[in-house]
Amino acid sequence: MSKNNKYVVHEGNKPGIYYSWPEARAQVEGYSGNCHEKVQPSGEAYSKPYVVTGGRKDGVYSSWRDAHAQVSGYSGGHVEKAKSFGEAESKFQASQGSSNSAKKGYYC
């Protein structure tokens, strides 16, 4: 694990940027609806798509924060990270019980 990792707490006891997981964890543990993500040393989020199913608005999201907002406080919502947007779209289509490529679920 790199010493240069940063963690962004979007929703927690004290939102902000933290330079270690223990510092960030202290802000999110026990906080209902917390939202946090690990970011690159530059501060940019790792670019991985997230598939939301059973949430407010199912689809493929390009950020953890946007995906998390669809399931936070929503019973039955699920977020899954995918390796690529192609994989994410396939997972989303499978979750919808359709291979209809005209039905897209991208939200950025």
Automatic annotation (TrEMBL):
Residues 7-38, 50-89 form the Ribonuclease H1 N-terminal domain. InterPro entries: Ribosomal_bL9/RNase_H1_N, RNase_H1_N, RNase_H1_N_sf. Residues 92-102 have a biased composition (Polar residues). SUPFAM superfamilies: L9 N-domain-like. Residues 88-108 are annotated as: Disordered. Gene3D superfamilies: Ribonuclease H1, N-terminal domain (3.40.970.10). This is Ribonuclease H1 N-terminal domain-containing protein. It comes from Aquilegia coerulea (Rocky mountain columbine). The lineage of its organism: Eukaryota, Viridiplantae, Streptophyta, Embryophyta, Tracheophyta.
